[in-house]
Amino acid sequence: MSAPVLELKNVAKTYRVKQGMFGKPKPLNAVNDVSLSLGRGEVLGLVGESGCGKSTLAKILLGLEEPTSGQVLVDGEAIGGQDRLALARRIQPIFQDPYSSLNPRKTIADIVSLPLRVHGVGDAKSRAKSVRETLELVGLPARVLNTYPSQMSGGQRQRVAIARALIMHPEIVICDEPTSALDVSVQSQILNLLNELRAEFGLTYLFISHDLAVVEHLATRVAVMYLGRIVEEADVGDLFDAPRHPYTRALLNSVLTPDPSLGVPDTQLGSAYPNPISPPSGCHFHPRCPFAETLCKTKAPRPVPRAGGHVECHLHDPDSTMYRPDFTV
Ligand code: SF4
């Protein structure tokens, strides 16, 4: 991997959450000791079920949430001390729902030029030129400049959102489920566009999705998140060819789930996603794991290196009594 452009070092985010009117606030570890590293031009797919902590991680990277502990570095520089505007020049988001992320009362020209105006870049004439060029880049004609989001299709709106994210020439783009709200036929057009833009501008993406099929299309590496932890990370080919963690296997099986509108995968694990306020003991995945043994209920697995990353499971830990060197899921 090239020198990391984005690094997360032991990042954690804990909220205090009250249950019921008279309940005492309890800690909720939304992100739990996450370390990740992205080289320039890489696409890291971050997958997991709804509530696993991936959107909290996105907010931390965008400076919308402070981590409770740990560090986020861009080009080796901690973002903690940077102001929001400086950070926004380097990291831009594309959100899931282009219907709600675009102001319905503003024209497309106003929406796409907003970052330039906020950052005081150029004069009106140069900003207008920049907006036209960026719209062209994302495949939208200049005639949409004076239209409103309501006059556009879902795919066109997501192209507007991409233009708005790219107009400041960011280094990193956080794509938070950018195709989930779109028709299947439009999804692949947007994924292809994101791929082309990445290749042309050397962009680095953190691509958040519940859908491993989408991630396989775009990502160079994949991190699988469960209850705030990265339970498996690997190069995309390795992860799909030889998943090591039982949860990764469940997610891969869920790709075959027929209803694409479910929003979160049917992981076929028999029991519901646990409440993050009172996570299961030991390995948090044990109540849903078909391979769990007594040790899994009492001891959390440690990260063990695997090709291109790591896996957290006793079955892959040579120091564990459960170690099975020939085990594949
Ligand atoms: Fe399953 Fe145990 Fe591995 Fe956790 S540590 S994933 S419960 S086998």
TrEMBL record:
The reply to whether Amino-acid biosynthesis figures as a keyword in the UniProt entry is no
Q: GO cellular-component terms in the record? A: plasma membrane
BP GO annotations: peptide transport; transmembrane transport
Keyword match ATP-binding: yes
Question: SMART domains under this entry?
Answer: AAA (SM00382)
Annotated localization: Cell inner membrane
This entry's Gene Ontology molecular function terms read:
ATP binding; ATP hydrolysis activity
Task: Identify the keywords attached in UniProt to this record, alphabetized.
Answer: ATP-binding, Nucleotide-binding, Transport
InterPro entries named in the record: AAA+_ATPase (IPR003593), ABC_transp_ATP-bind (IPR050319), ABC_transporter-like_ATP-bd (IPR003439), ABC_transporter-like_CS (IPR017871), Oligopep_ABC_C (IPR013563), P-loop_NTPase (IPR027417)
Tell me what topology the record assigns in the membrane: Peripheral membrane protein
Q: What is its main location?
A: membrane
Where in this chain does the record put each ABC transporter domain? 6-252
Tell me which Pfam families the record gives. ABC_tran, oligo_HPY
Q: Please report which protein family the annotation says this sequence is part of.
A: Belongs to the ABC transporter superfamily.
The UniProt entry, under PANTHER family, shows: D,D-DIPEPTIDE TRANSPORT ATP-BINDING PROTEIN DDPF-RELATED, TRANSPORT ATP-BINDING PROTEIN
Record-given protein name: ABC transporter ATP-binding protein
